[in-house]
Amino acid sequence: MADEVSVLVEGGKAAAGAQLGSALGPLGVNVGQVVAKINEETKQFAGMRVPVVVKVDAATRSFTLVVGRPPVAALLLKEAKKEKGSGKPKTEPVGDVDLAAVRRIAEAKGEDLFGRSIEEKMNQVIGTCVSLGLTVGGEDPRTVLKGRTAARGSR
């Protein structure tokens, strides 16, 4: 039976410190190898926190990684080149993302998002823009959502 260790690491910057070392050490795996593999598989998410599950086979002391995807909010903030969202998202926007970025994020998140079509998933990402205080293509994301649902309803 495999043991599992779940951690949240910064993309490409996992370390063999207390969080990983104390959890993996007793399982008999080479912590350095695990850290190197985590960093290799999460480097494209640099600057974002990424969920990682390390599955360790106690009999063979081998391991496999399951790397999750960062939250939609983290992907949007990276795209907008912002550290955090607005404290007053309805009245004080902090940045802007374009519709192409919204589509890329919806496609990258894939099955993590609800919705049958890419359009529905994009609407979910735009909804996250509302709560972060990000505009979409220079417009209020609520206006963008209304326009998208009106256009879909007229087909």
Descriptive overview:
- With 155 residues, the protein is an alpha+beta fold.
- It has helices at 18-24, 31-42, 72-79, 99-109, 118-132, 141-153; strands spanning 2-10, 49-57, 62-67, 95-97, 134-136.
- Strand 2 and strand 3 (62-67) form a beta hairpin.
- Helix 3 (72-79) crosses helix 5 (118-132).
How is the topology of this model organized?
Layout: E1 2-10, H1 18-24, H2 31-42, E2 49-57, E3 62-67, H3 72-79, E4 95-97, H4 99-109, H5 118-132, E5 134-136, H6 141-153
Helix pairs in contact: 3-4, 3-5, 4-5, 5-6
The tally of strands reads 5
Name of the level-1 CATH class of the largest domain: Mainly Alpha
Largest beta sheet: strand ordering: 1-2-3
Q: What's the CATH H-level superfamily name of the largest domain?
A: Ribosomal protein L11/L12, C-terminal domain
Strand content is 15-25%
Characterize the main sheet: 3 strands, antiparallel
* Class inferred from helices and paired strands: alpha+beta
Element order, helices and strands? Answer: EHHEEHEHHEH
Distance between the termini: 53 Å
| CATH architectural group of the largest domain | Orthogonal Bundle
Mean pLDDT: 89
The amount of helix comes to: 40-55%
How many domain modules? 2
Low-confidence stretches: none
CATH topology-level name of the largest domain: Arc Repressor Mutant, subunit A
